[in-house]
Amino acid sequence: MPLMDLIRARRSVRRYADRPVERGLIEECLEAARLAPSAENAQPWRFVVVDDAQVKARLADAAFSGVYRPTRFAAKAPGIVAVLAKPDIVANRLGRAIQGTKYYLIDCGIACQQFVLRATELGLGVCYIGWYSKRGVRKVLQVPRSHDIVVLLAVGYPDAAPSKPKPRKQLCDLVSYNRFGDGAQ
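Now predict its structure.
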């Protein structure tokens, strides 16, 4: 599929077929993520794939309870990938100190998008989950304090036809040339 068609086809999937995802397919998505660019080639990302039903149930109870209940749908995904970062590397320390930017978050975002696009190409559905208990995830997955839990990715075969695309802003409302305000608002 041409890249722009793939980008247009991608949707956040919140309902999954009751069908396991083959590890080989998850590994293809992880390979796409691994190849992502990063600041100073730091490659801060780490991944914990949860595909065991018992571990996933414990993770769901810990991550999606209480105030985090709205993202409980992720518990029905056949797999959940915890995206971690090891941020205490030179590029990220300097970036945060000088620019105020946590480059590892940008790097992990790029890696996640490559994961998601590959998943879409393979017929899988993914939803980024940013609303979860980090403390619960850290405890269940035994994530050391040296690593930040950046996002969870719910992964599975979609249970329904893709939804219609949500309205997007027009390019002319987002882009300015040579100075701000000549288009972007």
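Residues 33 and 120 are 13 Å apart (CA to CA).
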